[in-house]
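I have been asked to look over a protein record a colleague put together. This is what I was given:
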Amino acid sequence: MKGPVTTAAGPVTAADSAVDLLTGGDSGAAWLARYSGALMGVFGTPQRVLVRGSGCHVWDADGNRYLDLLGGIAVNALGHAHPFVTSVISSQLATLGHISNFFTSPTQVALAEKLLALAQAPDGSRVFFTNSGAEALEAAFKLARRNSTPERQRVIALDGAFHGRTMGALALTSKKAYREPFEPLPAGVEHVRFDDVDALRDAMDDSVAAVVLEPIQGEAGVRPLSPEYLRAARNLTREHGALLILDEVQSGVARTGRWFAHQWVDGVVPDAMTLAKGLGGGFPVGALVTFGEDVSALIGAGQHGSTFGGNPVATAAGLATLHTLEASGALQHVADVGAHLHAGLAAVEGVVAVRGEGLLIGFDLDGDHAPAAVQAALAAGFIINATGPATIRLAPPLILTIEQAASFLDALPDILDTVRMPADSTSQETPA
């Protein structure tokens, strides 16, 4: 009897064979040529064609293996093809895949309850499920509008903010290159200086409906807000009747060693929080969490909705992800591996600054060669991300081991030595 087929990427499973049947096997170069003829060019040219993943590793169409230190941009909290999450999704899909929002399901209710418990939300708090972080921010923007009056119309966001690409989320995003092609955007949003309490205080009065903040700005280079700033934002919004909305799309779901990054700061409880990315362990699911009865009542029946949001499969994936993280002691593990990476990066020649918490880390290089470092790392078998000319972001699976982190730290000096030499490279930033 013929044994299992094996490629450079490892054994070919039945699922692989089914995918090959639907797509056809091809080389990376051939797939990229087909890509350029079939897909819109909004992402530029993909760096590789990935075909399989397991744990913290992925393989490309040519059989090359990579240690994934980006995790789908903080999405694959449990790595790739996690057996429990995969089994739960498969079981749920085989049982009940989609229902309209005229109905609910046990997984939807249970995931909402779990999120409220992890958020330590007060009585009267509620959850609205979406399919993505941008959709969660759209719901949050609507919440801000519902907190408006004729005299209270302004929404405050920060310089460096990235909240998504849809029109409302884009209005909250600060980068002109993202905004200007699509103006006019929804009105009333103002951006103030990052982590500047005086600037926020000067901007605040009773005309502000909401302040929207990322506790750690991801796309801006992993820039944490200080505890003092978050406390000031909480106090000022409460004083002026504005909502404090925290965008935890990238920093939530154990990414920083707390369930949500704002939990590092005592006394800071938001009025609303957006989630996505790691929540489904790779399956698309997002959420808006509202804190307390008054805020939760701002959006009523018929005022918002989503066809796919909160479907049984997505919420089953969320439940499986949270259960696995909780049962495995992920918070301590993330803190330990993050501390190892942080200390190791700080000791590498050519790294001039390291920021972040847990396994959301940004580090600055001593020159504008971060995009070239991404390519050199890829050639060496590591997936990382440049958020700017001199800044690298790491957001690996939360199951990353000390040994895997050490393999990157060992390779990084040679990677940086390579890119310090003059070379032609173009930036391939990947916003989140």
Remarks:
- The CA atoms of residues 338 and 358 lie 4 Å apart.
- The radius of gyration is 22 Å.
